[in-house]
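Escalated from tier 1: iron/sulfur cluster holo job.
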Amino acid sequence: MTTREQQLQYLEAMGIQAWTARHAEAAAVEGSVEPDPEPAVVVAPETPAPAAPVTSVLDTTDVSGLDWEMLEARVSECRQCDLHTSRTRTVFGVGNRNADWLVIGEAPGHDEDQQGEPFVGRAGQLLNAMLQAVGLQRGQVYIANILKCRPPNNRDPKTEEVLCCEPYLLRQIELIQPGLILAVGRIAAQNLLQTQTPIGKLRGEVHTFRDTGIPLIATYHPAYLLRSPAEKRKAWQDLQLAVRTLRERRQ
Ligand code: SF4
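Tier 2 regenerated the structure:
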């Protein structure tokens, strides 16, 4: 399958109409992989400015100064909250540790808990398709969750669990220094932005992640999009906004 055919397949998975796909086809013919009139290929041309240290609301876990290996080891043996009793394994995160894009979801589900990797299964496949629709392979981004352990029966994370686990994610953000954070789903967006505003109102605009200066864009969770395919159009718009935001940040 050619690159063009692959991209059209990804756009179809995103629920993008044929007229939009033809834009992508035209762009692909010209050597671009972007499906939108706006340039959509994101390459990290420069070293990003160092992100400011992020302070946890409840810093129960001192992970400052830990490198990737030490941090991952710390997470793997963590017992800071009750979720350690029901997990199969921790789900630390995966991907490019120098990525421009940091994708943050909610928490491991059943498949993630079994495999130790975020966003696997059907939702993960759709996330991959969403990324590929804007010219990104899964391995080019870093993917993590708010929680490193699965809540039983996939219930929403409790506030105390989020606060216990937050230092790990904040240290990951410090280490990656991403150019952009894509918060997927209500739980991720609300916790990262420290708000109760519905996801439908958080998406579609550029936020800033706390005091770091890192732009944050919220969008729907792929699992929700699988249940509500009519919303894929909005997720596509969010991805295009993310592409434009990152490009403008790099100029
Ligand atoms: S969810 Fe986070 S804080 Fe709770 S046990 Fe797992 S790694 Fe530790």
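Residues 18-49, 55-60 have pLDDT under 50 and may be disordered.
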